[in-house]
Every structure is written in C-alpha cells, then in structure tokens.
C-alpha cells in the first residue's frame, strides 16, 4: 500500500476481515478474506493465496484470483517453491525475480512460461498449533518485493494466524483482541524479523511497530476497532 493511502482503506480491509471472522462464516470464507486482505495491503503484491498441508496433501484453500491458484498448482506439480518451503520452514521464503537464477528452477521456468507472475514470497501459518499452511504472495513485476514488503507480509501473517486460529476454535470477537494483546503471534513475527535482519528483540519490535505505521495499520488498535464494529459500538474510518 502506498504511504499516501488513507488509513480508512487499510482499516476497511481489516474491518471486513473481522466481520467475516465473527459473523459465523465458514473457514473457507475466512481464508478468502485473508488472501484478499494480503493482496491489498502488501506493497507490490498482485495475487495471494493460502495453501494448507493436510497430512501429505497440499491444498489451496483460498486465493485472491485464478493466477494465485495456478502458481500454487505449479508448485505442487514441480514439487518445489517458496510456498511449499514456507510450510516446512518458519523463515520467510522470497523469490524476487523468477527470471534469474532461482532456488526453485523447475518452478521458475514453469511460472515464467505460463503465468504473468515474476516474483513470490511464502510465510508460514500455524493455526491452532496443529494445522500448518502458508500465506503466499505473488507479483507480476520483477524485483518489486523489497525488505519493506517482507516486513508488511510478516505483520499480515501474524494477524492472519490469530484470526484463523480464532475461527478454528470457534472463538468470539474477544478472542481476537486477547490474541493480539497476548503478542503470541506478534512474538513470532518479531522472531522472524530478528532472523531476517540479525537484530535483537527490542529492535525487531520497533521495526514491526514502524512497519504497521507505514502501512497505516496499528495492529492492536485495529483489532479493537474490529471488535467495536462487530458489537455495534464503533465505526471504522
């Protein structure tokens, strides 16, 4: 999201996600909302998906569009890719340009030949401490995924994990607030930022806070707004 984008845009995205989470929607509805929110909020992202591992089977449970689904399918067909690796490895998996020398050469060749996608990122989702998946982000512009994009995606993944876990447990709106305030998933995000930048926890927390401000998304405040809207006690915007 550009720095000049109004806070209402980001707030509306998260408010919409909050409504889906707590209006009795199915898990698939929630995953769709998360994928669409990620495609909207992360700089350079054109397509997004969520892939889940169920035993030995990897399945796309949500996608912002058909392109995201196609790239997921190519990863499964080639048996390699940043999204598959993200499910196994807690570290961020980033391919800035599939046209260059890639860690995933078979996937890179297939993606470039059959899709408009030129870059990808994968981030691990741990849901209810059992279900493991990945938030997958794709761009049509080579080299557009930057460190800032990664940091934004880390923030989005932390929020998505809390929201998806709440749905998996059938919890109510208050659980989202407590999940945010407990910093369990935010703590994981801080740990990832520490690994990405080789920094201490205080510096990582400051970086996460600055990233949320750059995105015009204050995580805990936004969680509170979502809850208030759900209860009819407040408005977004």
Largest sheet: spatial strand order: 2-1-5-4-3
Strand percentage = 15-25%
Radius of gyration from the alpha-carbon trace, in angstroms: 17 Å
The sequence of SSEs as H and E is HHEEHHEHEEHHHHH
Instruction: Indicate the CATH architecture.
Output: 2-Layer Sandwich
CATH class: Alpha Beta
Which whole number gives the mean pLDDT? 75
Low-confidence stretches: 1-7, 222-227, 229-237
CATH fold assignment: Beta-Lactamase
Largest sheet: 5 strands, antiparallel
Based on Cα principal axes, name the global outline.
globular
Pfam families: ANTAR, GAF_2
GO molecular function, one term: kinase activity
Keywords: Kinase, Transcription, Transcription regulation, Transferase
Protein name: Transcriptional regulator
